[in-house]
Amino acid sequence: MTLPRTARIVEVGPRSGLQNENYVLTTEDKAAFIRLLSATGLQDIEAVAFLNPRIVPQLADADELAAQLPQASRVRYTAHVPDMDGLAHAMEFGFPRISIPLSASETYSRKTVHMSVGESLTALRSIAGRAIHEGIAIRVSVSTCFVCPYEGPVAPEKVAELALAMLSVGVEEISIGDTIGAATPRDIETLLNLLLVRIPAGLLAMNFHDTYGMAIANTYQALQMGVGIFDGSAGGIGSCPFAPGAAGNVATEDLLFLFQRLGIETGISLNLMRRASRFAGAILGHPLPSHVLKTATAQEPS
Amino acid sequence: MTLPRTARIVEVGPRSGLQNENYVLTTEDKAAFIRLLSATGLQDIEAVAFLNPRIVPQLADADELAAQLPQASRVRYTAHVPDMDGLAHAMEFGFPRISIPLSASETYSRKTVHMSVGESLTALRSIAGRAIHEGIAIRVSVSTCFVCPYEGPVAPEKVAELALAMLSVGVEEISIGDTIGAATPRDIETLLNLLLVRIPAGLLAMNFHDTYGMAIANTYQALQMGVGIFDGSAGGIGSCPFAPGAAGNVATEDLLFLFQRLGIETGISLNLMRRASRFAGAILGHPLPSHVLKTATAQEPS
User: Which CATH number belongs to the domain containing residue B41 in this structure?
Assistant: First the structure.
């Protein structure tokens, strides 16, 4: 099988990562963290979320943070936006891209966005329509594409149906999320076999979680099937909300290590990524789950 | 690709795992740990090593421990034996199987067993010849089969040459070790393509380390190529000696989770395995790197 020659990593640490940390960082620390990330060679950083600050206090300073984002010509910042109000904020701060949440599981959808999947899709269409009119690119972050923490296995056909519906909306990227990290490479193969007959690989991103240690195996499976966009979180920040102490988002460094060893170009410096992640660990005040970050003293194969 | 319908896990936590822990356990705690492991359904446990006690104080009580091993008819205990003196101890305690170390890298061989690879192979032949004469089965644990911490990449041809030499010795199992955990699935594919034209898959075990988070991806690659024996360490005990704090041997629970989700039978209870690993974590007094062990409170897909 042929692997892609290049891959793109969407850094979700400042948003999805910090959202799941208990400790609330200062705006200054977040801005410093994003400055370090912006210097790594990353092209896409999901930097803020315009959410209800009472529900997600970790990200309540989105306006202040948005105003402090470093201008780095190579980096595109994405704002996470669940509704029209969030879109208004994203427009105010001139974000070139937004990510909109969607769930593939009914129960997870109701528990997180308090809407059915159908209602959520309708809302997504409104937000996306307005955003596209404003020249803002759309990324959809689909959660529970394999296993729902409440319902169990999610039918791949359901995910494929949602993905097709999003195509017609005009989205730039569909992020396929394994929210609780329970998928195996076999599950990735099954779902991607369904998706790739209808959706170009270039529109698909994979959002893997390392809760059960499967993230890199799943990444390799997706790479072999031609997918080249992956969500990562610096240091693996953001634990699994369903298993305190367990890993959440796959660590960006772990993805980078795999890509480097496979000869897949990302344009990102592993050393600068380590520096950003070590800073995140220091300001959060606890060890991060990233494998590669712990190997700083090891002899590193080049 | 077809996956094996069954897989066998060789539990190496009490030997390879504890050897790399700083804290020296009491013989009673080790015996209790092995009792818990013996109750999980595991068929093979590498329980002791007959080494120089001054060099490896963690395993210095091998004689006492060997005398306390629980009699479990389903479990076969293996003793790690680097020389004829070790073999004498293994015979004294009636071990049905021994594992003998070998390195694929010259520098690693000299630094660990103070012999060249050629000298080590000669020693292995003497030990194995005597053991086979006594009806003891032989496992060879080959280290640095992909990357040497001193020399860098190891030529797959060198590993294949060693494996072929061992075939003629009459070994039961050759464990292919990724000692520093730096191999990717692509490296596994390359080496196994070389090995499997000359060596039956049933003679090969894979010893993966999760130092860089690659172990499960590598396991899945080997499974797809027909290999069905994997070394695991309960809880992932035994850090990487070349990177303090980093993971070493892949956690047995992480392997089990993958196998269960792929429908591959092992005969091992994940819940009983978790119990044994939690005990190991408690007596060692620190969190273990296993992913699955940290998910005890998560909703677990069955």
Answer: 3.20.20.70
